[in-house]
Amino acid sequence: MWGGRFAGGPSAIMREINASIPFDKALWRQDIAASKAHVDMLGAQGIVTAEDAALIAQGLDQVAAEYEANGVPENWDLEDIHMTTESRLAELIGPAAGRLHTARSRNDQVATDFRLWVRDAMDQAELGLKQLQVALVSRAGEHTASIMPGFTHLQTAQPVTLGHHLMAYYEMIGRDRSRFADARSRMNRSPLGSAALAGTGFPIDRFRTAEALGFDGPTDNSLDSVSDRDFALDYLMAAAQCSLHLSRLAEEFIIWASQPFGFVTLPDSLSTGSSIMPQKKNPDAAELVRGHSGRIVGCLTALMITMKGLPLAYSKDMQDDKPPVFEAASLLALSIAAMTGMVAEAKFRTDRMRAAAELGYATATDLADWLVRQANIPFREAHHITGSAVKLAESRGIALDQLSIEDLKAIDQRIDDRVYAALSVEASVAARCSHGGTAPDEVRKRVAQARVALGLEEQA
Ligand code: ARG
């Protein structure tokens, strides 16, 4: 393709280090689509004849059909997907193939192909995350009033509802979806026609190719266009942050599935056994989601470091942009699918959750709040009184509401037996009815809103 200037061919090492075809063959659909848009435009602008444009377009369809049927051949001498396709086109249609690359460079070509690929990956992530939200909302709807211990520092803090806990992930995943959508709208401009770096003297129509490829319009600076990989970084940042959420959810399932917790029975379909311990059922899928997030963050780091310090415009370092994006995309898709299955199919052991919520003096705050409300005691003092009650109950190995009224009065004579109604875990969650709180009514309200937002229900 560029032999004219060279006396000798590349060494074996040069061929190997240079070849991106082993991974960029994944761009073949985008490469064909962009070439078809380009040649259609060249024909319409009279830069190539209508006959040549039609011949090239047909030839590209034939190359695509071959790729579809047999895969993309991997010849290192052809370096990348762009040269592989063009060389096959030349074999099929002859010298007219040489006109396809008029007013174009591999620099704007790869920028365009890769953008198209990343745009699809963003759309897929968005779709997969929506399915995960559907699963979360549907399980939350079943458990708006199922009580479990809420934790801070992984220490029992206050009772919450399982529905509320699951809906926390609905919110996180919603932010992930909006990050992908936001990245998509920012990146949706076409670099095609920027050529090598400076634009072209041919009378091309960049608006036409942009529209044909579903872009909102062309990019506005050719140097930026061929050297910009922000769209890939935006994708990886959204993917990395999303993977952190998936990892945290996975971690909850891992803890909940452990025998001392026993809050959840994982679906057999997403667990494995042990080759030596017959009783084991291991949360491997969840552990791998947790593990994959490390790799996805690594992909983000890899591309950030690749891009850092590159002068304008294109440098070959940028060929290394693809493997981390491809790797992150496949790890993310798997992780989303695994967590969707986990949420949809897990059996929540609400009896165990409720029993655990009774432990650890989870309603101590309710006693303090009761003292504030019923006895008009300043919260800090109420906090201190409650601490003494917890200390006493703990020394006897009993729950707060098992302390007799005499015991409680001995701690503070302003306490009377109406306090017991406030000390149950049911009363505790029902009381937390502030906006976004854990009260079953609040959770029901949020679940209903989410169902409308997800299109599962008409607006009431
Ligand atoms: N395979 C290259 C890449 O992925 C295509 C662009 C090559 N451009 C160049 N001037 N060598 O980045």
From TrEMBL:
GO terms for molecular function: argininosuccinate lyase activity. It comes from Novosphingobium subterraneum. Residues 4-298 form the Fumarate lyase N-terminal domain. It is found in: Cytoplasm. The keyword Manganese does not apply. Residues 361-430 form the Argininosuccinate lyase C-terminal domain. Belongs to the lyase 1 family. Argininosuccinate lyase subfamily. It catalyses: 2-(N(omega)-L-arginino)succinate = fumarate + L-arginine. The keyword Heme does not apply. GO terms for cellular component: cytosol. The gene is argH. Its main location: cytoplasm. It comes from the Bacteria. GO terms for biological process: L-arginine biosynthetic process via ornithine. PANTHER family: ARGININOSUCCINATE LYASE. Its EC number is 4.3.2.1. Keywords: Amino-acid biosynthesis, Arginine biosynthesis, Cytoplasm, Lyase. This is Argininosuccinate lyase. SUPFAM superfamilies: L-aspartase-like (SSF48557). Pathway: Amino-acid biosynthesis; L-arginine biosynthesis; L-arginine from L-ornithine and carbamoyl phosphate: step 3/3.
